[in-house]
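Exercise 7.
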Amino acid sequence: MKNILISPFIVAALLLINNSCNSNASGKTTGNVDGNMVTVSVEPSYFTNENVTITTVPCTLSDGTETDCYQIVTNSTPSDHEMGPWCPDNITDGAEAGGIWLEGGEVYDVDGEFIENLATFYNDDTWLMYDENGDVHITETEEDCINAANPNVGTEYENFCVECIPAYITNVSQTWTIPITPIIQDSKAYFARGPGGNFSSMPSTRGIALNGVEYSAPAPVNNILSAYTLAPFDDAGGHINVHQGYHYHAATGLSTHVEQDDDHAPLIGYAMDGFGIYEMTDANGDEPTDLDDCRGHYDDVRGYHYHVDAAGNNNFINCLQGAYVL
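Solution. The predicted structure, written as tokens, is:
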């Protein structure tokens, strides 16, 4: 699947008044009068329109600000790439028959060989996810999908590859609300799950991809593995939960993105505080060296913004630098 590219708006000129810029909610560059720092608002036209509906609603942010937000409603399925596959059928299958697994900062193809060698990979002979014919044990029904995804999964699903398919989520809808114009904060707010602290009021969702798919909290890999199950991600870094729908745990470069004119990494989504989320590396393959704890930094074109973590880390960003919707 080829990446879908969207050309960004070309801003012809910026009208400077008293060393600051006019604020707007159109996604064009705006200014922060306190220090003349550039702020960039969320641009709704960058989202795919086949499965995303965006409206403007009043909202209250975590710092008490009453402002306007975008309410984003999606059907939790991408329109820009196929979902799956996740589990190979047989240990002779190649990489095209399965998805990926994230372990120790690396991305592994879940092909037949990976399934065959799980006992070696995890140094545990309990792993045996295939029968005498080499056929992989895969969940087959929606009930199996729900039961195998339970944190207290029963032993009957031990050594199963968990595969929840799109047919199980035809009626799922997700709604997120993010500030139109982000407001940077003096302190960082760390997510409850993942690196950092434990803020009970924090959203667990990291952000929203431009195709309307959720950038989710890190997958509970330890729980999955402790039950001797495997719940692979597809090549786009996503898989399905019947309540959550299709969602990402890694950014692998297959979703809609907005190329930048200066070889900066492309825009791929927005965090829950409204700041842009960009790919990890730029056109030269370089990762920024000045990222803060949240994986964010500032430049005069994009203002403050984030860069996603490496796909193998089962992570996107570590915290929010901006005010978020309560």
